[in-house]
């Protein structure tokens, strides 16, 4: 009786293990390199160009102000030995005022640029994720992982979908 029970248990266990391993082989996994996708799609260059155009005028104003500050600082270095104390103080105050103005204008511009970049990146990210889902469904993949967050994968068993995603996103 005990032998029958043991042999039945072993047979059931063996059957379950075989079923598990068979289903593990049927699991189709894909992987994507998000960083490479971002680097290769033309939408990123378009975003960069549009942001540069959008903020060009304000950046030029800040660059001009930086140039003026450099000029005044060099003037202070050159002529400070021949200036009176009142002239030194006035020029120093002027330079500090210009630096304060630069900081007051620069921070909001930087924040605005970052906010716009994030908006545009969110749009592109949505397109990329939707494209990955479409490719995974079309290819009957059970799972798609991000390459950067995966410690190890066997390239023989896992399909890299990055080039397909780049091609599909580039067409959109």
Shape, principal axes of CA atoms? elongated
Based on the structure, what is the oligomeric state of the protein chains? Answer: single chain
Question: How large is the count of helical segments?
Answer: 5
Classification by helices and strands: mainly alpha
Give the proportion of residues in helices.
over 70%
Return Rg in Å. 31 Å
Number of strands: 3
List descriptors:
single chain, 172 residues, mainly alpha, 3 strands, disordered N terminus
Account of the protein in words:
This protein is mainly α and about 170 residues long. Helix content is about 80%, strand content about 5%. It has five helices and three strands, in the order αβαααββα. A three-stranded parallel sheet has the order 2-1-3, covered by helices on one side. The longest helix is centred in the middle third of the chain and has 54 residues, at about 85-140. The chain starts with a helix and ends with a helix. The model is unreliable at about 1-25 (pLDDT under 50).
Short synopsis of the structure:
With 172 residues, the chain is mainly alpha-helical. It has helices spanning 2-26, 34-40, 42-79, 85-138, 162-171, and strands spanning 29-32, 143-146, 158-160.
How are the secondary structure elements laid out?
Layout: H1 2-26, E1 29-32, H2 34-40, H3 42-79, H4 85-138, E2 143-146, E3 158-160, H5 162-171
Parallel strand pairs: 1-2, 1-3
Helix pairs in contact: 2-5, 3-4, 4-5
């Amino acid at each position: 009786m005990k032998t029958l029970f043991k042999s039945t248990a072993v047979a059931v266990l063996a059957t379950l293990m075989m079923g598990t391993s068979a289903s593990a082989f049927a699991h189709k996994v894909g992987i994507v390199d998000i960083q490479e996708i971002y680097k290769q799609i033309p939408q990123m260059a378009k975003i960069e160009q549009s942001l540069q155009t959008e903020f060009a005028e304000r950046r030029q104003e800040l660059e001009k102000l930086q140039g003026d500050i450099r000029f005044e600082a060099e003037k202070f270095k050159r002529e400070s030995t021949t200036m009176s104390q009142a002239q030194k103080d006035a020029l120093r105050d002027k330079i500090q005022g210009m630096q304060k103005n630069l900081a007051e204008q620069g921070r909001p511009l930087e924040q605005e640029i970052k906010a716009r970049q994030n908006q545009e990146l969110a749009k592109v990210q949505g397109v990329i994720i939707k494209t990955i889902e479409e490719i995974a469904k079309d290819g009957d993949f059970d799972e798609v992982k991000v390459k950067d967050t995966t410690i190890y994968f066997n390239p023989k068993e896992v399909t890299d979908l990055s080039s397909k995603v780049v091609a599909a996103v580039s067409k959109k």
